Amino acid sequence: MTAAIEGAAGVVTLSRPRALNALTTAMRARIAEAFAAWARDPRVYAAVIVSATDRAFCAGGDVREMAECGRRDAGEARRLLAAEYSLNWQLDCFTKPTVSLIDGVVMGSGVGISLYGTHRVAGERYRFAMPETGIGLFPDDGVASVFARLPDAVGMYLALTGRSLGRADAYRLGLVTHCLPAGQFAEVLGALIEADPVDAVLDARHVGPGHAELEALQPAIARCFGGDSLEAIVGALEAERGAERVWAEGVLKDLGQRSPTSLKVTHRHVREARRLDLRATLAQDYRLACRFMLGHDFYEGVRATLIDRDHAPRWEPARLADVSDLKIQAYFAPLDAAELQLAPRSEMQAMR
After folding, report:
1. Burial of 69 by CB count in 10 Å (0-12 exposed, 13-18 middle, 19+ buried)?
2. Which of 11, 72, 189, 209 sits at 20 to 30 Å (Cα–Cα) from 330?
3. Are 62 and 110 in contact (CB under 8 A)?
Protein backbone atom coordinates (compact mmCIF):
# COMPACT_ATOMS: atom_id res chain seq x y z
CA MET A 1 0.00 0.00 0.00
CA THR A 2 1.17 3.50 -0.74
CA ALA A 3 0.05 6.92 0.41
CA ALA A 4 1.52 9.89 -1.45
CA ILE A 5 0.72 13.38 -2.64
CA GLU A 6 0.21 13.60 -6.41
CA GLY A 7 -0.40 17.15 -7.53
CA ALA A 8 -3.36 18.44 -5.52
CA ALA A 9 -4.46 15.00 -4.33
CA GLY A 10 -3.40 12.78 -1.48
CA VAL A 11 -3.69 9.28 -2.93
CA VAL A 12 -3.98 6.03 -0.98
CA THR A 13 -3.42 3.02 -3.23
CA LEU A 14 -4.47 -0.34 -1.79
CA SER A 15 -2.23 -3.06 -3.23
CA ARG A 16 -2.59 -6.50 -1.62
CA PRO A 17 -4.17 -8.22 -4.63
CA ARG A 18 -3.75 -11.80 -3.35
CA ALA A 19 -5.60 -10.84 -0.17
CA LEU A 20 -8.15 -8.67 -2.03
CA ASN A 21 -6.60 -5.65 -0.28
CA ALA A 22 -7.54 -6.86 3.21
CA LEU A 23 -6.36 -4.20 5.63
CA THR A 24 -3.54 -5.01 8.02
CA THR A 25 -2.64 -3.05 11.14
CA ALA A 26 0.28 -1.48 9.29
CA MET A 27 -1.96 -0.37 6.42
CA ARG A 28 -4.41 1.29 8.80
CA ALA A 29 -1.57 3.09 10.56
CA ARG A 30 -0.24 4.40 7.24
CA ILE A 31 -3.69 5.68 6.23
CA ALA A 32 -4.11 7.42 9.60
CA GLU A 33 -0.68 9.04 9.32
CA ALA A 34 -1.32 10.20 5.76
CA PHE A 35 -4.75 11.72 6.47
CA ALA A 36 -3.41 13.56 9.53
CA ALA A 37 -0.68 15.11 7.38
CA TRP A 38 -2.97 15.88 4.43
CA ALA A 39 -5.47 17.66 6.68
CA ARG A 40 -2.79 20.26 7.44
CA ASP A 41 -1.08 20.37 4.05
CA PRO A 42 -2.26 23.31 1.88
CA ARG A 43 -1.13 21.47 -1.27
CA VAL A 44 -3.80 18.80 -0.78
CA TYR A 45 -7.22 19.69 -2.14
CA ALA A 46 -8.74 16.19 -1.90
CA ALA A 47 -7.92 12.69 -0.70
CA VAL A 48 -8.52 9.72 -2.99
CA ILE A 49 -8.58 6.01 -2.12
CA VAL A 50 -8.05 3.61 -5.02
CA SER A 51 -7.25 -0.05 -5.59
CA ALA A 52 -4.27 -1.23 -7.62
CA THR A 53 -6.17 -4.38 -8.63
CA ASP A 54 -9.41 -4.74 -10.54
CA ARG A 55 -10.31 -7.80 -8.44
CA ALA A 56 -11.52 -5.81 -5.41
CA PHE A 57 -11.51 -2.47 -3.64
CA CYS A 58 -11.08 -3.97 -0.16
CA ALA A 59 -12.45 -7.26 1.16
CA GLY A 60 -12.27 -6.13 4.79
CA GLY A 61 -9.75 -6.40 7.57
CA ASP A 62 -7.11 -9.07 7.89
CA VAL A 63 -9.12 -11.20 10.32
CA ARG A 64 -6.44 -13.88 10.43
CA GLU A 65 -4.02 -11.26 11.79
CA MET A 66 -6.58 -10.15 14.38
CA ALA A 67 -7.37 -13.72 15.44
CA GLU A 68 -3.70 -14.53 15.91
CA CYS A 69 -3.22 -11.36 17.93
CA GLY A 70 -6.29 -12.03 20.08
CA ARG A 71 -5.07 -15.51 20.95
CA ARG A 72 -1.58 -14.28 21.73
CA ASP A 73 -2.14 -11.02 23.58
CA ALA A 74 -5.57 -9.68 24.55
CA GLY A 75 -4.13 -6.29 25.46
CA GLU A 76 -2.50 -5.89 22.07
CA ALA A 77 -5.74 -6.95 20.37
CA ARG A 78 -7.57 -4.18 22.22
CA ARG A 79 -4.96 -1.68 21.07
CA LEU A 80 -5.42 -2.73 17.46
CA LEU A 81 -9.20 -2.47 17.74
CA ALA A 82 -8.89 1.01 19.24
CA ALA A 83 -6.66 2.07 16.34
CA GLU A 84 -9.14 0.70 13.80
CA TYR A 85 -12.14 2.53 15.21
CA SER A 86 -10.11 5.69 15.80
CA LEU A 87 -9.28 5.66 12.08
CA ASN A 88 -12.99 5.46 11.20
CA TRP A 89 -13.62 8.52 13.36
CA GLN A 90 -10.61 10.35 11.93
CA LEU A 91 -11.90 9.81 8.41
CA ASP A 92 -15.37 11.04 9.34
CA CYS A 93 -13.87 14.19 10.86
CA PHE A 94 -11.59 14.88 7.86
CA THR A 95 -12.66 18.22 6.39
CA LYS A 96 -11.42 17.95 2.82
CA PRO A 97 -13.17 16.05 0.02
CA THR A 98 -12.49 12.32 0.16
CA VAL A 99 -13.20 10.23 -2.93
CA SER A 100 -13.19 6.42 -2.90
CA LEU A 101 -13.12 4.80 -6.35
CA ILE A 102 -14.68 1.39 -5.74
CA ASP A 103 -14.94 -1.48 -8.20
CA GLY A 104 -15.39 -5.09 -7.05
CA VAL A 105 -16.06 -6.04 -3.46
CA VAL A 106 -16.07 -3.58 -0.57
CA MET A 107 -16.66 -5.30 2.75
CA GLY A 108 -15.99 -4.88 6.46
CA SER A 109 -13.05 -2.59 7.05
CA GLY A 110 -13.12 -1.59 3.39
CA VAL A 111 -16.52 -0.09 4.09
CA GLY A 112 -15.02 1.54 7.18
CA ILE A 113 -12.37 3.45 5.21
CA SER A 114 -14.71 4.56 2.42
CA LEU A 115 -18.19 5.09 3.85
CA TYR A 116 -17.33 8.27 5.77
CA GLY A 117 -15.80 10.08 2.81
CA THR A 118 -17.67 12.79 0.97
CA HIS A 119 -17.81 10.86 -2.34
CA ARG A 120 -18.14 7.10 -2.87
CA VAL A 121 -17.95 6.12 -6.51
CA ALA A 122 -19.11 2.69 -7.71
CA GLY A 123 -17.89 0.89 -10.81
CA GLU A 124 -19.84 -1.80 -12.64
CA ARG A 125 -18.63 -4.65 -10.41
CA TYR A 126 -19.26 -2.92 -7.10
CA ARG A 127 -20.53 -5.28 -4.37
CA PHE A 128 -21.12 -4.09 -0.79
CA ALA A 129 -21.44 -6.44 2.18
CA MET A 130 -20.90 -6.63 5.93
CA PRO A 131 -20.63 -10.43 6.39
CA GLU A 132 -19.26 -10.52 9.94
CA THR A 133 -22.00 -12.64 11.52
CA GLY A 134 -20.72 -15.49 9.35
CA ILE A 135 -17.33 -15.45 11.10
CA GLY A 136 -18.60 -15.05 14.64
CA LEU A 137 -18.38 -11.26 14.81
CA PHE A 138 -20.75 -8.33 14.18
CA PRO A 139 -20.83 -5.44 11.69
CA ASP A 140 -18.39 -2.95 13.20
CA ASP A 141 -16.45 0.09 11.96
CA GLY A 142 -19.45 2.24 12.88
CA VAL A 143 -21.61 0.77 10.12
CA ALA A 144 -24.43 -0.05 12.57
CA SER A 145 -25.02 3.72 12.75
CA VAL A 146 -25.71 3.75 9.00
CA PHE A 147 -27.68 0.49 8.97
CA ALA A 148 -29.92 1.80 11.75
CA ARG A 149 -31.01 4.69 9.52
CA LEU A 150 -31.73 2.82 6.29
CA PRO A 151 -35.43 2.59 5.42
CA ASP A 152 -37.77 -0.37 5.93
CA ALA A 153 -35.39 -2.47 8.06
CA VAL A 154 -33.01 -2.95 5.12
CA GLY A 155 -30.08 -2.20 7.42
CA MET A 156 -31.10 -4.93 9.84
CA TYR A 157 -31.45 -7.35 6.92
CA LEU A 158 -27.96 -6.55 5.64
CA ALA A 159 -26.44 -6.66 9.11
CA LEU A 160 -27.85 -10.04 10.08
CA THR A 161 -27.61 -11.91 6.78
CA GLY A 162 -24.36 -10.45 5.43
CA ARG A 163 -25.92 -10.46 1.96
CA SER A 164 -24.39 -8.22 -0.68
CA LEU A 165 -25.69 -5.27 -2.69
CA GLY A 166 -24.88 -4.13 -6.20
CA ARG A 167 -24.35 -0.51 -7.04
CA ALA A 168 -27.93 0.25 -8.04
CA ASP A 169 -29.23 -0.62 -4.57
CA ALA A 170 -26.24 1.05 -2.93
CA TYR A 171 -26.91 4.25 -4.87
CA ARG A 172 -30.61 4.18 -4.03
CA LEU A 173 -29.78 3.73 -0.33
CA GLY A 174 -27.11 6.43 -0.29
CA LEU A 175 -24.21 4.06 0.30
CA VAL A 176 -22.58 5.42 -2.86
CA THR A 177 -22.85 8.91 -4.30
CA HIS A 178 -21.97 8.30 -7.96
CA CYS A 179 -21.88 5.46 -10.49
CA LEU A 180 -19.22 5.51 -13.19
CA PRO A 181 -17.66 3.05 -15.60
CA ALA A 182 -14.53 1.78 -13.84
CA GLY A 183 -12.64 2.53 -17.03
CA GLN A 184 -13.02 6.23 -16.17
CA PHE A 185 -11.46 5.97 -12.69
CA ALA A 186 -7.99 6.91 -13.95
CA GLU A 187 -9.48 9.92 -15.72
CA VAL A 188 -11.21 11.00 -12.49
CA LEU A 189 -8.01 10.60 -10.51
CA GLY A 190 -6.13 12.66 -13.08
CA ALA A 191 -8.68 15.46 -12.82
CA LEU A 192 -8.45 15.51 -9.02
CA ILE A 193 -4.65 15.60 -9.20
CA GLU A 194 -5.16 18.77 -11.27
CA ALA A 195 -7.48 20.16 -8.54
CA ASP A 196 -10.59 20.12 -10.72
CA PRO A 197 -13.74 20.52 -8.55
CA VAL A 198 -14.81 17.12 -7.24
CA ASP A 199 -18.55 17.53 -7.74
CA ALA A 200 -18.17 18.75 -11.30
CA VAL A 201 -15.77 15.92 -12.16
CA LEU A 202 -18.09 13.22 -10.81
CA ASP A 203 -21.45 14.70 -11.76
CA ALA A 204 -20.38 15.00 -15.41
CA ARG A 205 -19.49 11.30 -15.55
CA HIS A 206 -22.29 9.81 -13.46
CA VAL A 207 -24.41 7.18 -15.22
CA GLY A 208 -27.69 5.57 -14.22
CA PRO A 209 -26.93 2.50 -12.10
CA GLY A 210 -29.62 0.30 -13.64
CA HIS A 211 -32.06 -2.05 -11.95
CA ALA A 212 -32.07 -2.15 -8.14
CA GLU A 213 -32.27 -5.84 -7.21
CA LEU A 214 -33.44 -5.26 -3.64
CA GLU A 215 -36.22 -2.81 -4.37
CA ALA A 216 -38.86 -5.47 -5.08
CA LEU A 217 -38.00 -7.25 -1.82
CA GLN A 218 -38.24 -4.16 0.35
CA PRO A 219 -41.86 -4.73 1.51
CA ALA A 220 -41.01 -8.29 2.56
CA ILE A 221 -37.83 -7.11 4.30
CA ALA A 222 -39.85 -4.51 6.20
CA ARG A 223 -42.39 -7.16 7.25
CA CYS A 224 -39.78 -9.64 8.41
CA PHE A 225 -36.86 -7.62 9.78
CA GLY A 226 -38.60 -4.96 11.85
CA GLY A 227 -39.15 -7.31 14.78
CA ASP A 228 -37.96 -6.42 18.27
CA SER A 229 -36.14 -9.76 18.70
CA LEU A 230 -34.34 -12.38 16.65
CA GLU A 231 -37.11 -14.79 17.49
CA ALA A 232 -39.69 -12.38 16.05
CA ILE A 233 -37.67 -12.05 12.84
CA VAL A 234 -37.32 -15.81 12.47
CA GLY A 235 -41.05 -16.22 13.14
CA ALA A 236 -41.94 -13.64 10.51
CA LEU A 237 -39.71 -15.33 7.94
CA GLU A 238 -41.27 -18.71 8.72
CA ALA A 239 -44.73 -17.20 8.27
CA GLU A 240 -43.94 -15.59 4.92
CA ARG A 241 -46.12 -16.86 2.10
CA GLY A 242 -46.73 -16.09 -1.53
CA ALA A 243 -44.16 -14.71 -3.93
CA GLU A 244 -41.48 -14.15 -1.29
CA ARG A 245 -41.68 -17.59 0.32
CA VAL A 246 -38.60 -18.92 -1.51
CA TRP A 247 -36.66 -15.79 -0.55
CA ALA A 248 -37.67 -16.22 3.11
CA GLU A 249 -36.57 -19.86 3.10
CA GLY A 250 -33.19 -18.87 1.70
CA VAL A 251 -32.77 -16.18 4.35
CA LEU A 252 -33.64 -18.63 7.12
CA LYS A 253 -30.99 -21.00 5.77
CA ASP A 254 -28.43 -18.18 5.77
CA LEU A 255 -29.26 -17.19 9.34
CA GLY A 256 -29.01 -20.81 10.43
CA GLN A 257 -25.37 -20.88 9.33
CA ARG A 258 -24.36 -17.81 11.31
CA SER A 259 -23.23 -17.50 14.90
CA PRO A 260 -26.33 -17.28 17.13
CA THR A 261 -24.42 -15.04 19.52
CA SER A 262 -23.34 -12.77 16.68
CA LEU A 263 -26.91 -12.53 15.42
CA LYS A 264 -28.31 -11.52 18.79
CA VAL A 265 -25.52 -9.01 19.46
CA THR A 266 -25.94 -7.54 15.97
CA HIS A 267 -29.70 -7.20 16.32
CA ARG A 268 -29.40 -5.29 19.58
CA HIS A 269 -26.47 -3.22 18.30
CA VAL A 270 -28.31 -1.98 15.20
CA ARG A 271 -31.44 -1.18 17.22
CA GLU A 272 -29.45 0.75 19.83
CA ALA A 273 -27.51 2.61 17.12
CA ARG A 274 -30.75 4.38 16.16
CA ARG A 275 -30.18 6.71 19.10
CA LEU A 276 -26.38 6.92 18.83
CA ASP A 277 -24.18 9.10 16.66
CA LEU A 278 -21.14 7.65 14.92
CA ARG A 279 -18.75 8.47 17.75
CA ALA A 280 -20.92 6.64 20.29
CA THR A 281 -21.48 3.74 17.89
CA LEU A 282 -17.72 3.29 17.49
CA ALA A 283 -17.30 3.28 21.27
CA GLN A 284 -19.90 0.52 21.45
CA ASP A 285 -18.19 -1.33 18.59
CA TYR A 286 -15.02 -1.36 20.67
CA ARG A 287 -16.84 -2.65 23.73
CA LEU A 288 -18.41 -5.47 21.75
CA ALA A 289 -15.26 -6.38 19.83
CA CYS A 290 -13.23 -6.65 23.02
CA ARG A 291 -15.80 -9.15 24.33
CA PHE A 292 -15.72 -11.16 21.10
CA MET A 293 -11.92 -11.38 21.38
CA LEU A 294 -12.42 -13.16 24.71
CA GLY A 295 -15.04 -15.58 23.40
CA HIS A 296 -15.18 -18.67 21.21
CA ASP A 297 -17.14 -17.92 18.06
CA PHE A 298 -14.79 -15.47 16.35
CA TYR A 299 -11.87 -17.87 16.46
CA GLU A 300 -14.11 -20.73 15.35
CA GLY A 301 -15.44 -18.65 12.47
CA VAL A 302 -11.91 -17.82 11.30
CA ARG A 303 -10.93 -21.48 11.56
CA ALA A 304 -13.91 -22.67 9.52
CA THR A 305 -13.66 -19.94 6.89
CA LEU A 306 -9.95 -19.21 6.47
CA ILE A 307 -7.85 -21.92 8.09
CA ASP A 308 -9.46 -25.35 7.68
CA ARG A 309 -12.00 -23.96 5.20
CA ASP A 310 -14.50 -26.66 6.00
CA HIS A 311 -17.24 -24.02 6.30
CA ALA A 312 -18.72 -26.00 9.18
CA PRO A 313 -18.29 -23.81 12.26
CA ARG A 314 -19.24 -25.25 15.63
CA TRP A 315 -20.80 -22.27 17.36
CA GLU A 316 -21.12 -22.08 21.15
CA PRO A 317 -24.03 -21.92 21.83
CA ALA A 318 -25.23 -23.58 18.63
CA ARG A 319 -28.89 -22.48 18.88
CA LEU A 320 -30.52 -19.08 19.20
CA ALA A 321 -32.67 -20.45 22.02
CA ASP A 322 -29.54 -21.09 24.08
CA VAL A 323 -28.20 -17.54 23.83
CA SER A 324 -29.52 -15.94 26.98
CA ASP A 325 -30.36 -12.29 27.47
CA LEU A 326 -27.80 -12.22 30.30
CA LYS A 327 -25.07 -13.38 27.93
CA ILE A 328 -25.92 -10.62 25.45
CA GLN A 329 -26.12 -8.03 28.21
CA ALA A 330 -22.57 -8.94 29.22
CA TYR A 331 -21.30 -8.03 25.75
CA PHE A 332 -22.77 -4.53 26.07
CA ALA A 333 -21.65 -3.90 29.66
CA PRO A 334 -19.35 -0.87 30.07
CA LEU A 335 -15.59 -1.39 30.13
CA ASP A 336 -15.27 1.36 32.73
CA ALA A 337 -11.72 2.79 32.60
CA ALA A 338 -10.92 0.73 29.50
CA GLU A 339 -13.61 2.34 27.29
CA LEU A 340 -12.56 3.72 23.91
CA GLN A 341 -11.99 7.47 24.18
CA LEU A 342 -12.55 9.43 20.97
CA ALA A 343 -12.10 13.20 20.95
CA PRO A 344 -15.20 15.25 20.09
CA ARG A 345 -15.49 16.30 16.46
CA SER A 346 -14.72 19.93 17.32
CA GLU A 347 -11.41 18.92 18.89
CA MET A 348 -10.52 16.62 16.00
CA GLN A 349 -11.07 19.40 13.51
CA ALA A 350 -9.33 22.05 15.64
CA MET A 351 -6.11 20.03 15.37
CA ARG A 352 -5.94 20.73 11.63
Report:
1. buried
2. 72
3. no
